[in-house]
């Protein structure tokens, strides 16, 4: 695999190009010295002049490579810091997501518990749905919740009417009991008066018999 396929960052790619140019300059200097079997000090004048040009280019490439290397190192540190920051953000988002999953599971459990709960309204002796809709056709388009609310309200109103009737009958009963007690007391009083009258009559009759 070519290095261009591995390194895609433009700055790092420029560092590699500068390093390759520096390497080529070093190879050319080494080749010249080996070709003339000499060192920088013992090489002929024309070779020294050529070596001097290569050295200048080498130093220039080294300077450029150091500068690019510093820039690349700065970018790497910057990228690392940004990556760390993004990782922290991702960790925070992941934690929030886990909390949402937990809350979702909790709410699903609460919903299922509510659905399976034996509500008291389900035990109410409501009139059959068909009969209710026959009496109140305006609720035919209601949803399940609205329809159940309407049926419960109807049951409440009917029970309220029955309660009013019961209270009225109870008051009537209490009035009749009071009237009955009053009449009973009157009868008892009348009985007592009648007994007194009989006793007096017997006494008066006895006195009349003794006179004759």
Structure explained in plain terms:
This protein is mainly α and 212 residues long. It has five helices and no strands. It is rod-shaped. The termini are far apart.
Number of helices: 5
- Measured as a percent range, the helix fraction is over 70%
Mean pLDDT score, rounded? 82
Q: Order of helices and strands, N to C? A: HHHHH
**β-strand number:** 0
Any key phrases for this structure?
single chain; 212 residues; mainly alpha; 5 helices; 84% helix; 0% strand
Write the layout of secondary structure elements.
Blueprint: H1 3-6, H2 10-36, H3 45-116, H4 129-135, H5 144-211
Helix pairs in contact: 2-3
Task: Compose a concise summary of this entry.
This protein is mostly helical and 212 residues long. The protein is 84% helix and 0% strand. 3% of the residues are buried.
